[in-house]
Amino acid sequence: MAFRVYEKIGNYLIIKEKEVSLAGKRGPIYSLAMKKIKSYKGSNAVGWEITEEELIEALGYNRNTHKLIIDLKPDDENKVSLFYLKRIFGYSYDKWTPIALQLERIYSDKPVKDVKEFKNKFQIPPVDEKLIHEFLYLQGGFEKGNWVWGRVGGVNGCLLWPDAFKFFVNKISP
Question: Where are the domains of the chain?
Answer without folding.
Answer: 2-172
